[in-house]
Design brief:
Elements (H helix, E strand, L loop, with lengths): L10 H8 L6 E4 L6 H10 L4 E6 L2 H10 L7 E5 L5 H7 L5 E7 L4 H4 L26 H7 L2 H12 L4 H11 L5 H11 L11 H12 L1 H15 E11 L2 H14 L20 E3 L9 H6 L7 E7 L3 H13 L2 H7 L2 H10 L3
Parallel strand pairs: 1-2, 1-4, 2-3, 4-5
Antiparallel strand pairs: 5-7, 6-7
Helix pairs in contact: 7-8, 7-10, 8-9, 11-12
């Protein structure tokens, strides 16, 4: 499968949640096959701009071909989204009107014969998003202790038989291929009993550990809020409970003025809300979408809007004081200027 026939998940819902408008400036932090990016550029024309990030250089090149018609409106960067803020600063691409994270693997990665993400075809135990990463799934499977392997399977795969699988892995080392590992897990768990392959949780856990996915997600979410313009939208699509829990807790925390532990008699955290939840309920695919694209079945979309507080306004006012009028008009998107006018009486 190529980028051109990659099917983006929750596409209409994503565009609606981002409130994509002509002339807007947007970030696709997980470019993948370029499906969401293409729709964003279409809806933000004329004048829209898009910064696309992906840790996989193959994804960058595939998306570049898919988005060739918008080459004057895109900036594609081979980087993990954990460096989101640094990339935006480097290319002077902030504040922005919207940021989207689609945390699922792309079809190209799943179907690659050498990446090792899927147990349905034989490949080396790699699982790295980018070739510059040093740690591979092979290093974990064949080098980590039984205790550490069990912890990874339990914490990142929510695998109830983590200890049994880890013990079997250690006893059968070295394990060098995806199919070999899948057979071992199937044997260790007593064989296949349902629709989901018994190695699914193990492969998820190894991929998450190899790429530090959960830690990087937490870093990226904090950075995303910093580079959103006032009124800008943050949209995140997750595919398993670990990711969704992080996104849910982050958005709920950033939507409150105080995050002190329950029972604290007086607020001591000084936290000020920076987001407004756009929906209390998580958005899921329709039955029609799941039928057309089975990989969408576990997708969960959450969205929030950047809000203005006194501290934000103070920082923005200081920037405006030190920049001349022409520079200010060029740097700040419409949403920022509108927000500042709204705060003017203060």
């Amino acid at each position: 499968m190529t980028a051109s026939n990659h099917i983006p998940v929750l596409l209409e819902e994503s565009i609606r949640a981002l409130a994509v408008a002509p002339g807007g400036r947007y970030i696709d932090a997980t470019l993948g096959g370029g499906g969401h990016a293409s729709a964003i550029l279409e809806h933000s024309s004329p004048g829209g701009q898009l910064l696309g990030l992906d840790a996989d250089p193959e994804a960058i090149e595939a998306a570049r071909r898919r988005l060739a018609a918008y080459e004057d409106s895109i900036l594609l960067v081979n980087s993990n989204f954990s460096h989101l803020e640094a990339v935006c600063l480097k290319y002077d691409f902030f504040p922005v009107h919207g940021i989207i994270f689609d945390l699922g693997l792309s079809s190209m990665q799943l179907e690659s014969a050498r990446r090792g993400f899927s147990f349905q075809q034989e490949a080396p135990l790699d699982m790295r998003f980018g070739p510059e990463q040093k740690l591979t799934a092979d290093d974990i499977v064949n080098g980590y202790s039984e205790t550490e392997l069990a912890r990874i399977l339990r914490d990142y795969g929510e695998e109830p038989l983590a200890n049994r699988i880890a013990r079997r892995i250690v006893s059968q080392r070295p394990i060098k291929t995806t199919t070999g590992l899948a057979r071992l897990v199937e044997t260790a768990t007593g064989g296949r009993k349902g629709r989901i392959h018994p190695a699914t949780r193990t492969f998820q856990a190894l991929r998450i550990a190899t790429n530090s996915e959960l830690e990087n997600l937490e870093k990226a979410l904090r950075q995303a809020v910093n580079i959103l313009g006032f009124g800008g939208r943050l949209v995140v699509i997750s595919y398993h409970s670990l990711e969704d829990r992080i996104v849910k807790r982050f958005m709920q925390s950033e939507a409150r003025d105080c995050v002190c532990p329950p029972g604290t008699p007086q607020c001591i955290c000084g936290h000020i809300a920076r987001l407004r939840l756009l929906s209390r309920k998580v958005i899921t695919p329709t039955a029609e979408e799941v039928k057309a694209n089975p990989r969408a079945r576990s997708a969960r979309l959450r969205a929030a809007e950047r809000v203005v507080n006194q501290e934000d306004f103070q920082r923005a006012a200081e920037k405006m004081f030190f920049l001349d009028e022409s520079a200010w008009q060029q740097r700040q998107p419409v949403l920022m200027r509108q927000a500042l006018r709204a705060w003017a009486p203060l």
